[in-house]
Amino acid sequence: MNRTLRVGVDVGGSKIAALVAAGLAAGVDRQALGRAEVATDVTTPEHTVEGIAEAVQLALGQAQAAWCDVAAVGLGIPGRVRPETGWVESAVNLRWRRLPVGPLLSERFGVPCFLENDSRAAALGAYQAPGEQRYQNWAYLSVGTGIASGLMLGGELYRGPNGMAGEIGHIVVTPDGPLCACGLRGCLETMAAGPAIVKHAQALLEAAPAGRQPPWTVQAGGLTTRRIYEAAAEGDELALAVTRQAGRCLAQAVHSLVMTCDVERVVFGGGVSRAGAPFLHPIMEALEQMRSASQLAAEVLPADIVGLVPAEAEAPLWGALAVAERGYSKAPVPGG
Question: At CA 165, angle to CA 159 and CA 171, rounded to 5?
Fold first, then answer.
């Protein structure tokens, strides 16, 4: 049996996406053979698992492939996972706790299924993206509904003994800041994640004199991070105040990653980063202020220390496929 295909699945709180491709996820010629997306049903773990199966089956159908063509499935899960067992310890957004997702899906699909935390999976996808320079020590920093990072140290994905490496969203950047869901105040997520950026903009709007709201804040669809960054790029003072605060906090995160892990580059991904250059500019501005104030910062934070992962790189999906590839290389299908 010639099993040449791998499947990558990005499991999110609102959608589940699946990708079918052949061979390694790395390289300039990587090409999706099939792709599908379904809404995530989190009413029960069983419903969510059914959604994963549906997305994979749809992607295989688009690829005109069958299970006998598939070597392995890799999944990026937003939570604490144990890759060695395939168990999810906790995934708050999915309402999962102590769930053997890997074994369940392996039995259902008849092929090995491998799990990884979604940020670490996306780090693999970004690290292997065409055009991205390969550093031995490198970080992927995802900024979306939450904030987390994936670390490549010594050229290998680093999880830490408790699977907590890279959970930078819960470092405290403002001790007297907003209360975080983790119980502390002023965590990075409360200052620079998508909901925090919108909340800061709303607070400034409420404090503004009546009739002084900028036109972009009352357009259909309400406030979004993309709209805020677009307004900042056009020079809107309220939007600039919001994005500069987020930029300062994210620059602190970059500094922390460099000083603690000695990474050579930090690349940003996640939904908020899709604003592009307007997202990156206030971070670079804050890093330049650090360089001006400190000779050490000037040495360890060069101008090219940060970059963006293009949205079209689809790092979470290709990373999940890389999880399948890596897992399969260590545990091939018997007789496959």
Answer: 170
Residue-wise pLDDT for 292-332, tens only, equals 999 999 999 999 999 998 878 888 999 999 999 888 766 54
pTM of the model: 0.85
How far apart, in whole angstroms, are the C-alpha atoms of residue 213 and residue 236?
11
Q: CATH for 5-124+314-330, among 3.40.980.10, 3.40.50.170, 3.30.420.40, 3.40.630.30?
A: 3.30.420.40
Residue positions counted in the chain: 336
Instruction: Please name the residues in contact with 121: beta carbons below 8 A apart, sequence gap of 6 or more.
Output: 10, 74, 75, 76, 150, 316, 319, 320, 322, 323
Report d(CA 65, CA 38) in Å as an integer: 19
Tell me the per-residue pLDDT of 133-190, one tens digit each, with 9 for 90 and over: 778 899 999 998 889 999 999 888 888 887 778 889 999 999 999 998 888 999 999 9
Residue 313 CB neighbour total at 10 angstroms:
21
- Retrieve residue 181's tokens: 């869901």
Q: Which amino acid is at 244?
A: R
Task: DSSP for 17-64, please give it.
Answer: EEEEEES-S-STT--EEEEEEEE---SSHHHHHHHHHHHHHHHHHHTT
How many other C-beta atoms can be found within 10 angstroms of the C-beta atom of residue 104?
Answer: 18
